[in-house]
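User: Before I run my own analysis I want an independent prediction to cross-check against. Here's the chain; please return only the structure tokens and, at the end, one sentence I can use as a sanity check.
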Amino acid sequence: MRGMDTGPMLVAGGRRGAPRETARAFPLESRAGGDLHCWMRAVRGGGADPLPEAGDIMRWLYRFSESQGCTEGLVNGLLAAEKSALALAERQKAEASRRRSDVALLTREIRFVQGLLDRRDQQFAALQGELNAMQADALWRLVQRVRRARKRLLALFMRRASC
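Assistant: Structure tokens:
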């Protein structure tokens, strides 16, 4: 690794190893993979396959960066990709939240309009009931017959007057 001291770090008090912090440290902003201690166990654990989670392209890229001595560049690129993925996830989360609030607003408007429609239907049913009651009344039917007869007589007199 170019330009980096790969030797063990000396921590205050002369101890060798990773610096200890009172709060938990997470190497990735997304906190994927756990805290620093989980990452250290994974790094020390190793195994037959050094990159069990990586695909063929990522293995090739890692071996290439290792052979060129620029593994830091690969790690920085992966961290930048993670940052952009987190930013995208945050934007999508904000968009989803905005859409949820829009849906809630539309739901309230739908309930309001449905209430108006229900009241209109009730008023219509009441008016229809009044009309049916009026039509059932004998006096109302007599008045309607007189009106129709008057219209017919007026129409008849108008035709004769125009001839």
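Sanity check: Residues 51 and 59 are 7 Å apart (CA to CA).
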